[in-house]
Amino acid sequence: MRNIRLPAHVAFIMDGNGRWAKKHFRPRGYGHKMGVQNMIKLCSHAFKLGVKIVTVYALSTENLSRPQEELDGIYDLFRSYFQKQKGKIQELGVRVNVMGDLTPLPEDVRGLLLETMRDTAVNAPNGLLNLCINYGARQEIIQAVNHAVAFGRFVDENSFKSLLYSAGMPDPDLIIRTGGEVRLSNFLLYQAAYTELYFSNKMWPEFSRRDLEKALVNYSQRDRRFGNVKKG
Ligand code: FPP
């Protein structure tokens, strides 16, 4: 992995937990449990390799319409990783930032997320981990437009970006989606205008460090022209 052009910002659409669980004759909640374990393993590997920002799609605005039982299981995973096992996230040595509308979440979960952001705000030498929770790109864009209107301002690209959850961050260089679907599903639609996309047929819990490295090598071979012509 040395001497390759690494992306500074990688985002993951962690799809396939449910199908992976089904394949192993286990309930969907088990798939999510293994999914979080894999998320921590892969984020840690990405930071170790030198990626500076990792953004994960943990729960979409649309996911909030899933059966309450499944959502309760996911909220319990949040409780576990931000309270009982919080060391696992803190060991990453990164600042945790949450992107999304936290208002519909159970109050204790919301509190734990805000606490995690506060506790990791300083002394995070290894980078930044964005957790997208009840995140939807359309909701994010509409909220930004409404803020601009409320301020009575016209916006340009820079000022508009400062109204998004990702204010102050560089756009993702690479989005990796597992689970075999080839779409963005309302993820980072504004920020992904020139992002390289990588799709894997592996289900999220089985996407390995080696698979991540393959994706990074593939990225390093892309010719990113940003609409320009090749120089030289
Ligand atoms: C996609 O798989 C996964 C989700 C909708 C939820 C992912 C959530 C986590 C891994 C929890 C994150 C936890 C922390 C602590 C940040 P799917 O259920 O859509 O899979 P399927 O397409 O196979 O049904």
TrEMBL record:
GO terms of molecular function: ditrans,polycis-polyprenyl diphosphate synthase [(2E,6E)-farnesyl diphosphate specific] activity; magnesium ion binding
Name used for this protein in its record: Isoprenyl transferase
EC number assigned by the record: 2.5.1.-
Annotated residues for binding of Mg(2+): 15, 196
Function: Catalyzes the condensation of isopentenyl diphosphate (IPP) with allylic pyrophosphates generating different type of terpenoids.
Top-level class of the enzyme under EC nomenclature: transferase
Superkingdom in the source lineage: Bacteria
Native source organism of the sequence: Candidatus Borkfalkia ceftriaxoniphila
Keyword hit for Metal-binding: yes
